[in-house]
Amino acid sequence: MSSLCGAKESVITDYPAQVLLENLEKNVEVNVPEDVSSRPVVTGHEWGVLDDDFSKKNKGRFTKVLAAGMWPTHLFNSTTDAILTSTRLFLDAVAASESSTLDASFPVRRL
Fold first, then answer.
1. d(Cα 6, Cα 35) in Å, to the nearest integer?
2. Which of 4, 14, 41, 98 has a CA positioned 20 to 30 A from the CA of residue 20?
3. Domain spans of the chain, in order of start
């Protein structure tokens, strides 16, 4: 979405399982036109893991984080903590004080 809205750079992450990343790559291929100036980069990242290559390379590099997902209710608090931990690492400190945002979509459990 951010690429389609004119972002200079976009990164799409998911849990680092090959099948998930291949699905994301396919979604980019199908839904992002070739002429979009900044095609999203797809890579694996597990929320809350701060010592992997992706985390080290991207510390303080982003001004926006869009987070969405479906988590089992019993994992909700730990997953939320992991997302916030990663987000703090990735958001640029200067930009964060001015305009950085975390846009998150959390599922609602229906009974």
1. 12
2. 4
3. 11-105
Full DSSP string of 2-53: TTTTT-S--EEEE-S-HHHHHHHHHHHHHHS-TT-SSPPEEEE--TT--SSH
Q: Sign (positive/negative) of CA torsion 106, 108, 79, 28? A: negative
How many CB atoms within 10 Å of residue 86? 22
pLDDT, tens only, 26-41 = 999 998 988 887 888 9
* CA dist., res. 86 & res. 90, Å (int): 6
- pLDDT of 42 > 50? The answer is yes
